[in-house]
Structures are given as C-alpha cells and as structure tokens.
Amino acid sequence: MTTTREPQRLCVENVGQIKKADVTFGDLTVLVGPQATGKSIFLQFLKLLVDPGHVLSELKKYGLDWNRKVDAFFNIYFGEGMGTAWKPGQSRISLDDRDVDIEKLVSRQPKAKRESLFFIPAQRVLSLRDGWPRPFTDYSAGDPFAVREFSEKLRLLMEQEFARQPLLFPQTKRLKSELRKLLDRAVFAGFGLRVDKSRPQKRLVLGGEDGGGLPYMVWSAGQREFVPLLLGFYWLLPPAAVARRKEIEWVVIEELEMGLHPRAISVVALMIFDLMQRGYRVCISTHSPQALEAVWVLKLLREHHAEPEALLEVFQTPKTQPMRKLAGSVLGKEARVFYFDPTTGATRDISALDPDAEEAGQSGWGGLSEFSGRANRVVARAVASSQGELAL
Amino acid sequence: MNFQQAVGQTAEVQGSWQPGLQALKGADRVHITARAPRLLSGSVDLDASLARRYPNANRWDYGIGRKGREQANDQVYWVEVHPATEQEVPTVLRKLGWLRSWLSSSQFLLKEPQPEFIRVSSGRTSSSLAAPIRKRLAERHGLFHAGHQFTID
Asked: How many domains does one find in chain B?
C-alpha cells in the first residue's frame, strides 16, 4: 500500500554540499551515504518545510532573531557556519514539484504552530547532561534547532508525562511487552531505568531501587546513546489507550544505530516497524549495513508474499498475536532507499537494493556492503591459492 | 605465457580457444562483460570441449583470459554460470572439485598469477553481498560468488 499523504517528494538543489537531492518518500524512507553528503541538511529541510510555522514560532519564543535574512536564519536553524549553504540564484527547493520561496518563508510571521514532524537528531546524546534532559535555552544560539528542540521535548516529557513515575524502563503502557523484553536483554541487561529523586537535582539512573543506581557517566556508550532515543519513542507512543500522537505524521530518526550492538539495532528496527504500524511515516538515515539488510528482507518478503512469521523469524521475535499483526502491517508498507553519492553530489534511488546490479552504488548498497563484496573476492582468491598449492 | 598459448598446449582442449568472449554460449554472455574488451586474451568453453571425454562429469563452464597487469602471464578466470539457489551449491562445488582435478591432470600451465574461481548466477541472486553463504564459499572453497553479473576489470 503506497501512502498518498503529502508531501510525497522533496527536491533540494545546490545547497551546501548537495548538488541535487531528489527524494520521493515511502512509508519508510532510508537515506544512506558517506559523512558530509547532505543527508542531515536534507532531513532538516524536510522538518522546516513540513512545519514552518512551528519552527519559526519556537525560535521567536526563545528570543532568536534573524532579521528576515536567509543566511542569519540558516545559522540559527541548521547551526553556526551554515549561513553560506544557501546560494542566492543557485539554490532551489521544491516540495511536491512546487518551488518554495525560502526568503519569503523566513520573512513571514508564524501563524499555524501545528507540528507534524518529530525529529530525533544524530547528536541526541547531547540532550542529556548529568542524566537529565537539557532545556532549549541551555544551548548556544549556534546549536542546531533540531538538537535543541528534541532536548526540550524530552525535558517536557520527563517533567510532565513522567513527573510521578519513577520507573522509566520497563514501562508497561508505552512499548509492546515483546519489545520490552528484547530491549531488556539487548540494552539494559536487567537494569531498570529510573528517576533518582534522592538529590536536589533529579537524574536518570540505571538500576538501584534502593536509592543507589548507576549514574549517567558510568553507563555504557550504547546506553547513553540509546536512552534519549527511547525517550523519543516514548514521546511518540502515548500510553496504551492511544495508538499515536494524532498531530504527528512524520518521524525522522538520524543514525538509528548510534553506539548500538547489532542485537540492539534489531530491536530498534522493530520499534520503527511499530511506529509504521501506528501510521507514522518514518525517515531514517543510517550507516548500518544491518539496517539496510532489514529493509532488503522486508522488500523481498513482501515481493514473495511471505507470511508475517517469516519477518519475525529474521528478528528472532516471539510469534505472538500482536507481533504477527505488527509484521503483517509492515509487510504491506513501502520502503524506499536513496543514496547520497559523494562523487556527483546527487541522490540515486537504490530502493531495489539489487546485489546483482552492475552499478556499484546499487549493488554495494550505497557503500554499506561494498566492503563485504571486496572482502569475499580477496578471501576467495587467497583460499584458492592455498588450496591450489595442495591440489596441484 | 598467455591464455591462448596455455590452451594450445593443453591436449584435451587444444583447438578450443576463441578470441574475446566468443566461446561463451549466447545465454551466458549477458552475465559476463569486460571493462576493457581489448585486454581480453580469449576464452574456452570447457563444458562443450570436454563433453565427449567426460560425459558424466560435473564439468565447469568457461575459462577466460585477460592480459596480465604487472605480470608477464595472463590472468585466468574460471567462470561457472549456474542458478544461484542454495540447493545448487553442492552441484557447483562438485563442478569446482572436478575443475581443480582437471587443471591438475591436464597439466594446464597457467597457474601464476593465481586463477580466480567465479560463480555467476544465471537467475536473480537471493543473497546480499554480506550474506554468510557468499562468505562460506570464499572461505572454505576459494569460490567468489559474483552475483548476476561478472565484470572483468
């Protein structure tokens, strides 16, 4: 089932390192490509164009001013130094084939404050300081809006929705029990995540029902990366009676694999499937071959009309009724993959993920599996050589 | 030594050498290409050439030569075009075993640089580049699974 919700297509030309990024979205859209090829800028543009009123009003609310100038706005929105990314006369953006006048957009008075895209940035680890979410105003004016806003959302989540709940993980009302169990094994190793109120400043700790607990600085790097991501999911998954936040249609997750072991990446992939089942459109960027392998499996199982159980088998997930339903729903969704090619500065649709394709960007999955291809060949040659000496 | 000389000096395939990729059967040609065709030093259809002598053997498909890069000798690619399903792996491995044994018994002379053994899929491949089956074939058998298309650099 292809989605008909707008926007369907975003095209960004001659902005920063992007020559031409042309992406038609699916229910799941995956962006791949080496560092500094423009994936993050592209996703931040999506946020700006989907939620212009919300972005402008938030910036104004916190006293940020750009004098209606595009370069000043870019320095605030994308972050310090990004003012020169927009080249007047050359840069161009279109949404669903309609040109967007960026100068007009940054000059207008924000009216509709509606927000329909939730952005989980790659720098999410910065959103916790000493184990508690930082407010928007804790950052400098040159820090990207996406990071500041995400951080502020987590702060509000903690201080409003979780104000009276000391235990954050496991949480019975937010995640499916199957996913909780998998997360417990893959990330938390039996430790609960809880709010420690024993000090003047509240903080998140792992374990320690009796008042002890491991503070933020002694968590593993993966746990420090994962907890903001988990809180982001909590924000998107309201308590059980409601499937999703109605006003939100889009979820952007940058580099879902950050700091995680492949088993934990599998669980995050399932959590993303959960978002898709709830009707969110999801865009991710990734450097993880495993994440693309998950998309590849999804595509092939869908093409071959496989039963939902086959997908659960890939993820070693219990074949319970809710998980079957989740898998069945996801197998009906469309995934698209785009490669940000550093040699041309343009994107390529590599959704076919065809390992047989002649073109290296396609067969090597945008660089994520080309190493494996080369490794196989060199090993085959070395093994043939040593076996040859024995046989010949 | 070049590939043509090596084929010419191997009694069982003498006279089977063809220029470029001309020894390949029509259906298989779409799967094998060369980035620089002028550097190809010929091909031989082992399967057809040896059918009478070894009628019941699991014969390998082709040998293809390419001019050496840094060496005086040509590089040889032994290529099998075969369905890439998991069930066909044992058959391909039997063919590889037969080829190795034939290379030894026929005293095929072009052993340096190390020839490459390449499996090319005649249908769509169902394994990604990182798939364990591809790793197993490389690690245990010295066989490179190139997928649907093999391009000689």
From this structure: 1
Question: How does DSSP classify residue A279?
Answer: T
Is any Cβ of chain B less than 8 angstroms from the Cβ of A296?
yes
Instruction: Write out the two tokens for B22.
Output: 């001309």
Average pLDDT score over residue span A143-153: 97
**Residues of chain B neighbouring A296 (CB-CB closer than 8 A):** 128
Domain interval for residue B59? 3-152
Tell me which of B129, B135, B145, B151 to substitute to probe the interface with A (most A C-beta atoms closer than 10 Å). B129
Q: What is the token pair recorded at A97?
A: 């084939």
Structural domain A9-159+241-353, CATH architecture: 3-Layer(aba) Sandwich (3.40)
Decide if the complex's ipTM is over 0.85: no
In the numeric block, the tokens 């007047």 are attached to A88
Other C-beta atoms closer than 10 Å to the C-beta of B82 total 19
Q: Find chain A residues with C-beta within 8 A of B30's C-beta.
A: none
Neighbouring CB atoms inside 10 A of B14's CB total 11
Short-list B13, B126, B129, CA closest to B61: B13
Per-residue pLDDT band at A211 (split at 50, 70, 90): low
CB contact A310 to B (< 8 Å): no
Provide the pLDDT for residue A63.
Answer: 93
pLDDT of A267 strictly over 80: yes
User: SS3 of A141, please?
Assistant: coil
Quick check: B100 and A392 CB within 8 A?
Answer: yes
Does the pLDDT value for residue B9 go beyond 90?
yes
User: How many Cβ atoms from other residues are within 10 Å of residue B68's Cβ?
Assistant: 17
A356, A370, A391 ranked by CB distance to B100: nearest: A391
Long-range contacts of B91-99 (CB under 8 A, 24+ apart): B91/B58, B92/B119, B92/B143, B93/B141, B93/B143, B94/B58, B95/B58, B95/B59, B95/B60, B96/B60, B96/B141, B96/B143, B97/B58, B98/B54, B98/B57, B98/B58, B98/B59, B98/B60, B99/B46, B99/B60
Residue (of A318, A222, A332, A313) closest to A273 by Cα position: A332
Q: Do B100 and A387 touch (CB under 8 A)?
A: yes
Q: Which residue has the tokens 């649709």?
A: A349
Residue A3: is its pLDDT beyond 60? no
Least confident of A26-30, A367-371, B4-8: A367-371
A303 touches chain B (CB under 8 A): no
* Average pLDDT rounded to a whole number, residues A26-51: 96
- Report how far apart the first and last C-alpha atoms of chain B are (Å, whole number): 20
Which two structure tokens, joined as six digits, stand for B77? 């690619």
B98 close to A (CB below 8 A): no
Chain B residue with the nearest C-alpha to that of A384: B142
**pTM of the shown model:** 0.82
∠ CA(A177), CA(A181), CA(A182), 5° rounding?
Answer: 115
CB-nearest partner of B138 from A358, A370, A379 = A379
